[in-house]
Write a structure and sequence with these properties.
By secondary structure, the protein is an alpha/beta fold. 41% of the residues lie in helices and 14% in strands. It folds into 2 domains: 229 residues, Phosphoenolpyruvate-binding domains (TIM Barrel); 29 residues, no CATH class. Strands 1-2-3-4-5-6-7-8 form an 8-stranded parallel β-barrel, surrounded by 7 helices. β1, α2 and β2 form a beta-alpha-beta unit. It binds 3-methyl-2-oxobutanoic acid.
């Protein structure tokens, strides 16, 4: 999409200002041009090209299989649909955990090959070196704490994280460390609302919650969940704004019927 000089783009600086002004930040996932274009025009602040693409686009059980090349493909499609929103791209599993040089190389590939505006990484102290090196190179990094789906085989379950004091304390310390390393925001996934409130109050950078309560500085949902495309996933935190699955099914059944009944195409729908 060509640059429209009239449009004031959302930047990482805008998000900081929004936190300071107590204006909540809206974020949604997208993985392709057409939906990104709709979400951007609707006024969403941040579009996350999540590695949840592995689940909702490719049908994998976890986020682990998606590759850096596949993330770049999704992200570049999203970037072409966006004029205003900030586009954040997940670094996929295996592309940054090895060492900080590997992390930097992966982040550089995302920025150069997709045109995304920032990257997101899961983890705290374990990835701090990589975060710092990427930020020092001039690439904005969003952190991600709490339920970190790339570690699902370590957790063994998708239940709420950091309910115990030791894990809550580590999460709090990690959030401060990520801020110190230069992260511009942190996603808090599936943690108690009271913990998310404390963390949000103790950080100067914004927190974006998913299943982390209303005290976070912003909220994110996976588009397939909030639009009701994926109807099997019904966690307590999810608000479903549409039932697209039902609407699409009805539309396609109507189309099939019209073909079978020889109603489509009619005289006006042909040359
Ligand atoms: O990959 C993703 O969609 C995410 C969100 C759930 C925050 O990381």
């Amino acid at each position: 999409m060509s640059i429209n000089k009239e449009v004031k783009r959302i930047t990482t600086h805008t998000l900081l200002k929004m936190k300071e002004a107590s204006e909540k930040i809206s974020m949604i996932t997208a993985y392709d041009y057409s939906f990104a274009r709709i979400f951007d025009a609707a006024g969403i602040d941040v579009i996350l090209v999540g590695d949840s693409a592995s689940n909702v686009m490719a049908g994998h059980e976890t986020t682990l299989p998606i590759t850096l090349d596949q993330m770049i493909y999704h992200a570049s499609s999203v970037v072409r649909g966006v004029e205003r929103s900030l586009v954040v791209v997940d670094l996929p599993f295996g592309s940054y955990q090895g060492n900080s040089k590997e992390a930097l190389n992966s982040a550089i590939r995302i920025m150069k090959e997709s045109g995304g505006h920032a990257v997101k990484m899961e983890g705290g102290a374990e990835v701090a070196d990589g975060v710092k090196r990427i930020v020092d190179t001039g690439i904005p990094v969003m952190g991600h704490l709490g339920l970190t789906p790339q570690s699902i085989y370590k957790f063994g379950t998708y239940t709420v994280r950091a309910k115990e004091q030791a894990e809550a304390e580590k999460l709090h310390k990690d959030s401060l460390l990520l801020q110190e390393c230069g992260c511009f925001a942190i996603v808090l996934e599936k943690i108690p609302a009271t913990l998310a409130k404390t963390v949000s109050e103790n950080l100067t950078i914004p927190t974006i919650g998913i299943g982390a309560g209303g005290a976070c500085d912003g909220q994110v949902l996976v588009m397939h969940d909030m639009l009701g495309i994926n109807t099997e996933f019904k966690p307590r935190f999810l608000r479903q704004y549409l039932n697209l699955n039902e609407q699409i099914t009805q539309a396609v059944q109507h189309y099939i019927k019209d073909i079978k009944d020889k109603d489509f195409p009619n005289d006006k729908e042909q040359y």
